[in-house]
Every structure is written in structure tokens, then in C-alpha cells.
Amino acid sequence: MKQDDEILQGAFIKKYGSSSRKVNRNKGLPSIKNGSDIGIIQNLKVVTNNVILHYDNEFKSELLDKHEFRGTLYRWEVTANTILKAS
Q1: Taking a C-beta distance cutoff of 8 angstroms, is the pair 85, 38 a contact?
Q2: Are 48 and 72 in contact (CB under 8 A)?
Q3: Residue 36 CB burial class (10 angstroms; 0-12, 13-18, ≥19)
Q4: What are 21-65's pLDDT values in tens digits?
Q5: Where are the alpha helices (DSSP H) in 1-87?
Q6: pTM here?
Q7: How many whole angstroms separate alpha carbon 28 and alpha carbon 76?
Q8: How far is it, in rounded angstroms, from Cα 9 to Cα 87?
Q9: 3-state secondary structure at position 44
Q10: What number of other Cβ atoms are within 10 A of residue 80's Cβ?
Q11: 3-state secondary structure 52-74
Q12: Which residues, 6 or more positions from 26, have their beta carbon under 8 angstroms from its beta carbon?
């Protein structure tokens, strides 16, 4: 059985489809992954339910014991270098 952090990482690579199958679904997380891969997003962290995902260093990712966080929080850094890479 997959850990919750592995499932979250799989969502970034379109491993799981949208249950609604609508055209504009399943594009956001892969776009964020692409931005991280090409360097316009740095130090990406995702907190959701019981997972803290350190996208740039999976060894720092962790499962939380409690399910106290409801929702999803994305955090990344924008620097002069990331802006130059994006333009």
C-alpha cells in the first residue's frame, strides 16, 4: 500500500486522473512540477491533511500523526533567478 506522501507525489506526475474527467482538470499540479523541474519554482513545499512534502528533497518529507490540517498549502520561493528563468 502506498504512503500518503507517495500518492501526493504521484498527483504531480498525472499518475491519477480527475474523477470528473473534465478537460481543464489534472493540469495544475503537473504545471507546478514543471516549474520546479525547470527552476522557475524553488523550494516547493506542500502541506495537505497528514503530509508535509518537501518536493526538492523527499527525504525531508514526513507524515503527520494527526489530521488537523484541512486543505492544501503550497509554498515556494521566487527569486531574481527564478524570474529571469521564467522570462
Answers
A1: yes
A2: yes
A3: middle
A4: 666 666 777 888 888 888 898 998 888 878 888 888 878 877 777
A5: 4-12, 28-38, 80-86
A6: 0.67
A7: 15
A8: 27
A9: strand
A10: 7
A11: EEECCCHHHCEECCCCCCCCEEE
A12: 14, 16, 17, 18
